Amino acid sequence: MQSASDRHEYPAHWEADVVLRDGGTARIRPITVDDADRLVSFYEQVSDESKYYRFFAPYPRLSAKDVHRFTHHDFVDRVGLAATIGGEFIATVRYDRIGADGMPASAPADEAEVAFLVQDAHQGRGVASALLEHIGAVARERGIRRFAAEVLPANVKMIKVFTDAGYTQKRSFEDGVVRLEFDLEPTDRSLAVQYAREQRAESRSVQRLLTPGSVAVVGVGRTPGGVGRGVLGNIRDYGFNGRLYAVNKAFPEERKELDGIPAHRSVRDIDGPVDLAVVAVPAEQVPEVVAECGAHGVQGLVVLSAGYAESGPEGRERQRELVRHARAYGMRIIGPNAFGIINTNPDVRLNASLAPETPRPGRIGLFAQSGAIGIALLSRLHRRGGGVTGVTGVSTFVSSGNRADVSGNDVLQYWYDDPDTDVVLMYLESIGNPRKFTRLARRTAAAKPLVVVQGSGTAPQGHAVRATRLPHATVSALLRQAGVIRVDTITELVDTGLLLARQPLPTGPRVAILGNSESLGLLTYDACVAEGLKPSTPLDLTTAAAPEDFHAALARALADDSYDAVIVTAIPAVGEGSAGDAALAEALRSAAEQVPGKPVLVVHVELGGLAEALSAAASTAPQATAGPPKIRADHPFRALDRLRATPAPAEPSAPGTGDRLIPAYPAAERAVRALADVVQYAQWRREAAEPGKVPEYENIDEKGAAALIDGLLTRGQGLTLGTEETCELLATYGIQVHRALPAATADAAVQAASTLGYPVALKATAPHLRHRADLGGVRLDLADEEQLRRAYAELTELFGTPDELRPVVQGMAPRGVDTVIRAVIDPAAGAVLSFGLAGAASQLLDDTAHRLIPVTDREATSLIRSIRTAPLLFGWRGSTPVDTPALEELLLRVSRLVDDHPEVVAVTLEPVVVAPRGLSVLGASVRLAPPPARDDLGPRTLPAY
């Protein structure tokens, strides 16, 4: 007889790192026979009250029998999980499968009793909630559909864990015990609860890194120069409000300070807590530093050290070990190979970065995976802050380097409800979890603008990225669907970000243009037309216009309800100097303040004084720094020879001042492109307020489709359905495919036509000819047998034997516009619905639109209209408009099929002929496979290492 412990191998895939409510991390893993001593030690640290709540009686210690029972599991009917920090248990959970009589049972029994025990020191950190998510996922995997728990009424915390989880549950009270029963199938509410907990935990984990009360810089050189010494100087010079320590194991024992900062040989020697450690030692010394930080209770690390995954396979393994080591102590990591972090909040004032200039405070959150791009972005914001938009600067800045742990997703969670951040700018070289990023981006964009420059699609060597089969353009389109303002360059990133940071959102695309140059006005007009805006005829104030003329014209345009935004163009006037620039800037600003609900942009040519004057906010704006740009002689980039000179630092000013400052641009195209991006975002935001719905259709047979899919999958893991099976499955969702009959011979073709009725079409379905009417593989409107036989002979004479052609006969469909509908499940991005017109021209132009599944009715409508060739569907050049409502319904039915049945991993409908009334699906293919794992429906986890 097989022993229980032999029934299943150790389920390593249940191991996971999680972020807890307070931002710390813990590891969740199955309990094994080797954990006896850990279990006893854990139990000894639990209070008598908690033990009483767990066992309903005084239970001071575990017996040998208890230890055996709680450490020996079959990983099927009896499972135990532990949450650990530093290898030691901080909480446990277990389930035991039971039958209808409440006694121990095996499958097919689908109910289990569940019980928790959390160390008192770790209660309130969300450990039990995380364990419940993971034990629930394990139970579902083992065929358990329902949990039961008995809890004492006084154990309010544990009752709250169960009731707040969002599952459908039933509660009863008997014999002084509360009995809770709840289904484990995820519900909309349970997923909402899970996402909310995820946001709070991940946001808090980033907040702990960005708002430390104490910082230790490890690897500070004993002499000026070097990365560690440079970062220490930046933290000190920016006025960090917490405690700062310099650490270097090579310091002499008698050294007590360095440059006025307390100095220590090890983090463990510091008397007091350390919240953040900035690590700037060689990679081979980092493990020792991590161990010291973990032992001292450091909450997080910023690892500037290089030599990790960016350096090859050996470095990649070193990076994995770094993450595992840090997480074992509950620490999160920014980096390795990071550029650093900045927080300009006056209560924090942290510049733990290699930035060669002091960042200005502002309302922009900035994230860059690349250190070089981070330098460029900070430098551009610094220059533009002193010459265009005054005090517009950053609230927080994160450079993630190899982003082995903390990623853009984590920082988005923080910025979502950060009161100091109004606009988010991100430079992403790769997206590790596109499905999650899209979800977070959609939620963030509904509250504050999110502007993204996305890399080319090829991830840098140091980045661990999930494989995706989607083209780069498709991923970009899905980001735009989520409300992301997708731009192509860091120049556009700054241009758009500054407009969003200082001006209100426009209510539409109508643009007024006014200025003192007819030519510049016309250039601006043409740029607006090219970007899809609706400009008015430019108002030429002539080169003799005075500031008062600009003020009056701008005030009139802003007061006019026929305009949604105003672009002011300005060129130098003869004899105009800095005083004139200041007067013009004040005239424009005062006019804009009279009607604050519309955005105003300025396009200036050779008017540096105007740009600077526009940015001046009374006495609060920083002034431009005169003289050539400088870098401190002891800056680390001098030693590393990694940076050329950039503008010198200016004193930071208070954030939030000058909110109505007007952004100015040196070229019309840049201003208009930024405005067009903001107009599209404003439109998305209005639509997101009413997101639409996924319609219900009475003739959808979801259960019938599921039974058919289950039966078909018994044949194999990956299966492309035949014609009849495809038609049968699609029919369960109300999708009818135009019937086509094989025609292996001319006589078979005639017989097929007799069955279908004339007129018919004869088509070659060989892969090289399929859907290629332009190659001559299709003959249409064959009215009788003679025409059909002639067409058959022509096809076989031109293209080969019937075996090579695979000809079919199909009844003629009403004339219309040929379109293509596809759906695919991508392992990284999720299920995607695509639409475009059929034909080589659309393929060459890559004119295809995409939406994430499930698609709402509003999204189906916008999907059809978002391709460049959409006018062909709506009566272009006098043609008859086609039945787009029928097309929208077909898109929604395909979306429902794939969303309801993730085993449907690919669907293609080609061509779909959309006529003035109705449509015809002339070709279809469906592929089935076991669905890829969906981590967004499972328990919260950090990326595995």
Please tell me how large the radius of gyration is.
33 Å
For the secondary structure, the number of strands is: 39
- Taking the alpha carbons of the first and last residues, their distance comes to 38 Å
The fraction of residues in strands falls at 15-25%
What kind of sheet is the major sheet?
8 strands, mixed
Unreliable stretches:
1-6, 386-390, 575-579, 617-658
Main β-sheet, spatial strand arrangement: 1-2-3-4-5-6-8-7
| Gross geometry | flat
- The mean pLDDT is 87
Which structural class fits the helix and strand makeup? alpha/beta
Helical run tally = 28
Portion of residues within helices: 25-40%
Would you kindly provide a written description of the structure presented here, covering whatever features stand out?
With 945 residues, this protein is an alpha/beta fold. The chain is built from 28 helices and 39 strands. The strands form six sheets. Strands 1-2-3-4-5-6-8-7 form an eight-stranded mixed sheet, with helices on both faces. Helix 16 runs parallel beside helix 17 (578-594) and helix 27 crosses helix 28. The longest helix has 23 residues, at 188-210. It is flat. It starts with 15 loop residues before the first strand and ends in a 17-residue tail after the last strand.
Q: Any descriptors?
A:
disordered N terminus, eight-stranded mixed β-sheet, 35% helix, alpha/beta
